[in-house]
């Protein structure tokens, strides 16, 4: 709000003096850029809840397949351990038989 109180006397002073064209163009350009900045900020503020909600859904979707993949990997590991456990006695017998044969 302070800036607005300073801006009004400044604008009155600028209008009382005859500013050259170059300065008017420069102030107009600055005003237009400031206006676009405000509009973009408002659009971003209004749309941000929707975009953050979409991001959260995307992250959840990414997590779900990862959890399923992790579950499959865990299952494969358990299956491998079971297979090795079943194969271990046969392997031990083979090693023992070979060791006794030597």
From TrEMBL:
Give the region (Disordered) as residue ranges: 53-72
Quote the biased-composition stretches of kind Basic and acidic residues, using this chain's numbering.
Answer: 61-72
Residues making up the signal peptide according to the UniProt record? none
- Protein origin, superkingdom: Eukaryota
Stored Pfam families: G0-G1_switch_2
Q: What is this protein called?
A: G0/G1 switch 2
Q: Which organism is it from?
A: Cyanistes caeruleus (Eurasian blue tit)
Lineage of source species: Eukaryota, Metazoa, Chordata, Craniata, Vertebrata
Q: Which gene encodes it?
A: G0S2
């Amino acid at each position: 709000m302070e800036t607005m109180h300073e801006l009004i006397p400044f604008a009155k002073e600028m209008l009382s003096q005859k500013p050259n064209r170059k300065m008017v163009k420069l102030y107009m350009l600055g005003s237009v850029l400031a206006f676009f900045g405000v509009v973009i900020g408002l659009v971003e503020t209004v749309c941000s809840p929707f975009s953050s909600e979409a991001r959260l859904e995307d992250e959840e979707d990414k997590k779900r397949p990862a959890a399923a993949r992790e579950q499959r990997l865990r299952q494969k590991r358990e299956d491998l351990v079971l297979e090795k456990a079943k194969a271990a006695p046969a392997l031990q017998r083979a090693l023992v038989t070979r060791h006794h044969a030597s």
